[in-house]
Amino acid sequence: KVEATFLPLLRGLSEHPLVGHADGRGLVGGIVIGRDKGKRQAFPAGEQMPGRIEAALRRHQVILRIIGNRIAFSPPLIITAAQIEELLGRVRAALDDVLAEVRATA
Known about the structure:
Blueprint: H1 3-12, E1 19-25, E2 28-33, H2 49-59, E3 65-67, E4 70-73, H3 81-105
Antiparallel strand pairs: 1-2, 2-4, 3-4
Helix pairs in contact: 1-3, 2-3
């Protein structure tokens, strides 16, 4: 089952500085974009973090649903483990790009 690949990689995104929490069930999951994991604090609206992350995802040729400060995942049931690894690798790369932008302007 590909969920054995999907869920650990998705949950691993929780370690990223821009991610407050990541979890899922089966092949449905999501990540919460957050400034402070401990306080569950969102980024201020003026920083447009969801939009910046969405733009970075598109640069990495990934289209996901952004819902408020959450990114939703629901890949097709025919996805392979290798494709899941590629998808979540691209998501991590997009998050890294945005983090680099944030640090460069801080």
